[in-house]
Amino acid sequence: MNWRRSQSGTGYFDPLTASKYTSLTTYKRDGTPVATAVNVVVGGDIAYFRTWSTSGKAKRLRHTTRVELRPSGPRGKPKGDAKVSAIAILLDGEESRKAAAALARQHRIVHGIVVPRLHQRRGWTTQQYRLDPLNITSSDVPTEPS
Fold it and tell me: Which of the chain's termini has less CB crowding within 10 Å, N or C?
């Protein structure tokens, strides 16, 4: 699969290719949104990002996998009005290795060198996530607090 910017402009995640960074919004148990900046690699209707297993976003994704993404700057400040909703799926095995390789190819310094070394030095477990287009009928959409 070609992990570079899509030339056709028809992929679900193509709005994210306009920026090097993406604001990833995850949700707390009470439905409160929390946005953080991540690097995303896009290939048509699939996208990947990574984090470490004890990060806040990884903890939030354990109970609510619905996310929203917007092109952003390095601090997560959104650029423009584009917004994409998705489901984040924790990967393992071969697909996780492929996602890590795709991230390392597209973001050579950050995900090819810095992130792997930093996570290893700190003893963190790196996790790759696949982003799938949001199925509106999904039961994973956050609900109002009781």
Answer: C
